[in-house]
TrEMBL record:
Chain ranges of the Aminotransferase class V domain: 30-331
Listed name of the protein: Serine-glyoxylate aminotransferase apoenzyme
GO biological-process terms attached to the record: glycine biosynthetic process, by transamination of glyoxylate
Keyword ATP-binding: no
Length: 396
């Protein structure tokens, strides 16, 4: 694998040089006021990217999986009931975590390639007159299938049912790349990580809690120590952590937030949509289909591309790495061997995307698929040659 080529996995993503350098800093006293000058601006930057005025932001040395555990263990008790749809590998893993913690999960089995069934949620919530369901889980962007779900519709389902359940959203592969509206959508806990839209190395679980979620932390009795938000809040009040923080990553997060906000969130989202549209145009030109079943659920951060029946899609990923030094994502779970994934999020430009499209073409042709070299590149070029917004260094 070449360190010179960009990666096209859906995370960790390519890092701008400025952010890589921001993470590479001298040791400081993490219990000094100096650390507070890194910590508090980073938390405020995340709050702005979530589009929230009041969310409590907690940043743990972990990954998105740790963020899921933070959400559950701080608000729920053993035996509590959770409602969730299983429409991909990451929704499946969050459900599995709930079950391992002794929670009762009502699972709505949903075809992989479709978004969350908000109408079915509304039916279940309306029927739950005793309000046994304490939390609704929602995966905003299912990374395994390249499917975006309508979180506003899930909130409307809760409201239409008059149900008080909390709304927890996995935004790991959407936040900082696709529009996310914490306050407007009535999200109670949002979970993300450092290694995708924030363009940093893996290592930070980033969560936002609403006032309602914070209130629930007073009644939840699931065990937690490392992920206790109250311990974390006490540390923050003293410019510190309850244990040793990842200072370099937090410094990088501070700069990443400044970079994204400097570009302008609307420009960030438009850039991701534009690059994704170019990839989707290439897929059509190849005569292939996306795993996502309809345009309204197409993800702007990752495309899962179906290969012909009987062809092992993992071979594309393997040969791309071995022959051309380029990384794509494999299929996971139910779509393993049936799709390969092109990640198009984080620090990426039209020109970088073209290199990934061109390499995918070469690999598929090498493997004997009926792909005309240049077809996908030309289709993407037609998209990228159209007028585009001005981007700042976040895209550089």
């Amino acid at each position: 694998m070449s360190f010179q080529n960009p990666v096209f996995i859906p995370g960790p993503t390519n890092m701008p040089e400025a952010l890589r350098k921001a993470c590479d800093m001298p040791t400081i006293d993490h219990r000094s006021p100096l650390f507070g000058q890194i910590l508090h601006p980073a938390r405020e930057g995340v709050r702005k990217i979530l589009k929230s005025d009041s969310a409590e932001i907690f940043i743990f040395p972990s990954t998105g999986t740790g963020g899921w555990e933070t959400a559950l263990t701080n608000t729920l008790s053993a035996g509590d009931k959770v409602l969730a749809a299983r429409n991909g590998m990451f929704s499946h893993r969050w459900i599995d975590m709930c079950q391992r913690h002794g929670l009762k999960v009502e699972v709505v089995e949903t075809p992989w390639g479709e978004g969350l069934p908000a109408d079915r949620y509304e039916e279940i919530l309306t029927a739950d007159t005793g309000h046994e369901i304490k939390v609704v889980l929602a995966t905003h962007n299912e990374t395994a299938t390249g499917v975006k779900s309508d979180i506003a519709a899930v909130r409307r389902a809760l409201d239409a049912a008059g149900h008080p359940a909390l709304l927890f959203v996995d935004g790991v592969s959407s936040i900082a790349s696709m529009d996310f509206r914490f306050d407007e959508w009535g999200v109670d806990v949002a979970v993300t990580g450092s290694q995708k839209g924030f363009m940093l190395p893996a290592g930070l679980a980033i969560v936002g809690f609403s006032a309602k979620a914070m209130q629930a932390t007073g009644t939840g009795t699931l065990p937690r120590t490392f992920f206790d938000v109250h311990d974390m809040a006490k540390g923050y009040a003293n410019n510190a952590y309850p244990y040793t923080p990842a200072v370099g990553l937090l410094n990088g997060l501070n700069d990443a937030c400044a970079m994204l906000l400097g570009e302008g969130l609307d420009n960030v989202f438009a850039r991701h949509h534009r690059i994704a549209e170019g990839v989707r145009a290439a897929v059509r030109a190849w005569g292939l289909d996306l795993c996502a079943r309809s345009p309204e659920v197409y993800s702007d951060t990752v495309s899962a591309i179906r290969t012909p029946e009987g062809f092992n899609a993992t071979d594309i990923v393997t040969l791309a790495a071995e022959k051309y030094g380029v990384a794509y994502g494999t299929g996971l779970g139910e779509v393993a061997g049936k799709v390969f994934r092109i990640g198009h999020l984080g620090s990426l430009t039209d020109v970088m995307a073209l290199s990934g499209i061109a390499t995918a073409e070469m690999v598929m042709a090498d493997l004997g698929l009926d792909i005309q070299l240049g077809s996908g590149v030309a289709a993407a070029q037609d998209v990228y040659r159209s007028p585009q917004p001005t981007h700042s260094r976040a895209a550089a």
